[in-house]
Amino acid sequence: LGEVPVSAVFAENYIMRNPSVSMFDTAAHMSEHNANTDRLITKNSSMRHVEGGWPKDVDFTEQSDVSRFRKKAEKDEEYKSSVKALGPIVAKCMKQNNTINIFEEYFDGNDVDHSSEPPSAKGLAVFRDPNEVKRTATSINWHPDPLAAAKVAVSYSILNFQDSRFLTSRMPHQSYIWDILNPNTPDVELLPPSPLCCLRFNPKSTDSLVGGSYNGLITFYDLRRAGGGTSKEVVPFSTSVIEKSHHDPVYDVFWINSKTGNQCVSISTDGQMLWWDTRRLSEPTDSLLMCTDAKGNGQVLGGSSLEYNSEAGPSKYLVGTEQGVVLMVNLKNRKMNNGITVFDQSSGKHHGPIYSIVRNPTNTKCFLTVGDWTARIWMEDLKTPIMTSKYHSSYLTAGCWSPTRAGVFFVTRMDGVVDIWDYFYRQNEVAYSHKVGDAMLSSIAVQGVNNSGGKLVAVGDVTGTISLLEVCESLAVPQANERKAIDLMFEREMKQEKNLEIRERDLKKSRQMEVEQKNREAQDKKDAKDEKMEQLLRSVDAAFLAMIKEAEDDESKTAEAIPLDANIIEEK
Asked: What percent of the chain is modeled with pLDDT above 70?
């Protein structure tokens, strides 16, 4: 290596250069590539097992042939050796099963307090309407058996009159039953003659459903009579006659308590309430006109929602009307206004249709109504609401109680938000609000029955999308002494409302008495004035008569004096 010493002579031959940066990349130049695999669509298929494996000469339907073949097989030496060889294998499997209980609940019986947990909810799945024409999910109903696979029946329809979507295509009629474990394809496809507005499982026979159609028909479905093989389509087993059905869309239908489990009731905005027997849908078994006064000229109210709970009374029904008035129907008291009790028609009623009316699962005398911008809680013994939520910023479309927590209820809004109220925590504010989507929500249902479930919430919107939510433990698990506290709160509010009614009645009575007293005093004053005037007139009449009499007396005296003077003059 050479060394160049520093010298001023060489420095004169160079000038300073501005700093520069050079970058070198030794990596190979590659172009960007995208790869997208085809989506794997899974579906569930069933397999029907029929008893087989018998020889051709043995008819397994004949008990004598089966017993003869079994006796012959049991005497065979190969049969004995096969059973003897299978013995140790079966014994080993039984010992393995008895070693560990795989279904054991390790922490069963330990009550955990979830009250301090902040309320929350998360989305689990989304079920989209398979049709190209997006329809409104008008009703959601969970499978009533908690031990069976979790399924949900959804009815789809377009309730807007003369909707613009009808100009280009016909409205699809299909409604679906979804399995929550398979959100890709429906589990069952129902094919009604007209789009369904409501759909419900039969709690006694979970393989049957009843639905109310847009054109007023009632349809009955039996899932056991579905198409064979892998077909998922189910046509109505029986349908009502259109001449003897509702004249408006059937907005709600309920299975009612009966010995056979085949009876149901439906309501519509045509003002009729009809009872049906699904074994004979040619005509309704009973009917009722929802009128405020059956004897006089009462107003006929159209039904928009219905509630039936056999625990509250097998003959009691709650009806929410499109005029915002609540009706209670008791068939045991049909002599009084056809059994119809009309609740408050003034300040207590809703300002629009009642979209949901639901009894509290723990206190059946208490029920919830959802309409306009508020949710209101009522008691059967009062005709005015005992509690009213604050006015929401958006219109409310549906609501329901939690099946496990006595003080929790859900309401859906037009702006795509689900509000969860927890009256055990506070009554003046929403406990939790969850944004489901931008579309307007139309229906809601919570899975579960008393003391079970309460975590899965299905929410439907106007595009036919069903969103499955799971709420946290604090909104699903009952709190200590919650039911007693909620009952006491409702009782206190009911007593307060009764006291206010009594106070209002007393004030009204006192005001009426004051008005009557004022009228009486005015009448007395008028009578006194009239009497005074009459006395004055009598005195005037008397004075006038006295003056006339006095004038007459003076005239008579004058007349008597004139002849006397005349006689004196004549005599002179």
From this structure: 92
CA distance 544 to 548: 6
Q: Please check whether residue 236 is in contact with residue 220, taking contact to mean a CB–CB distance below 8 angstroms.
A: yes
What secondary structure does DSSP assign to 54-85, as a single string? --TT--TT-HHHHHHHHHHHHTSHHHHHHHHH
Mapped onto helix, strand or coil, the DSSP state of residue 299 is coil
190 close to 177: Cβ distance less than 8 angstroms: yes
pLDDT digits (tens, 9 = 90+) for 381-431: 888 899 999 998 899 999 999 999 889 999 999 999 999 999 988 888 999
Q: Is 442 helix (H, G, I), strand (E, B) or coil?
A: strand
The DSSP bridge partners found for residue 341 are 328
Cα–Cα distance, 323 to 392 (Å, whole number)? 20
Supply the pLDDT for residue 569: 52
CA distance 559 to 572: 21
At residue 130, the 3 state secondary structure works out as coil
d(Cα 444, Cα 437) in Å, to the nearest integer?
14
Backbone angles phi, psi at 368, to 5 degrees: -115, 135
Spatial separation of the C-alpha atoms in residues 226 and 207, rounded to whole Å: 11
Q: For residue 570, what pLDDT is reported?
A: 53
Task: From 378, 301, 389, select the one nearest 344 (Cα to Cα).
Answer: 378
SS3 call for 281: coil
Cα separation, 572 vs 561, in Å, equals 17
Q: Are 213 and 219 in contact (CB under 8 A)?
A: yes
Tokens of 268: 């519509």
Cβ neighbours around 442 below 10 Å, total: 22
* C-alpha to C-alpha distance for 309 and 318, rounded to whole angstroms: 9
Distance CA 491, CA 97 (A): 53
Of the CA atoms within 13 Å of residue 332, those in its CB half-sphere come to 5
Task: Report the alpha-carbon angle 13-19-21, nearest 5.
Answer: 125
Does the pLDDT value for residue 63 go beyond 80? yes
Handedness of CA 492, 494, 497, 498 (dihedral sign): negative
- Angstrom CA distances, 415 to 46, 156, 183, 384, 509, stand at 41, 20, 24, 29, 46
Residues constituting the chain: 572
Q: Which element (helix H / strand E) includes 508?
A: helix 482-571
Please name every residue paired with 58 in a beta bridge, in sequence order, or none if there are none.
none
Secondary structure in 3-state letters for 345-396: CCCCCCCCCEEEEEECCCCCCEEEEEECCEEEEEECCCCCCCEECCCCCCCE
Residue pair 321/353 in contact by the 8 Å Cβ criterion: yes
Strands 272-277, 466-471: pairing is unpaired
Q: Roughly how many angstroms between the first and final C-alpha of the chain, as a whole number?
A: 203
Tell me if 355 sits within 8 A of 370, measured CB to CB.
yes
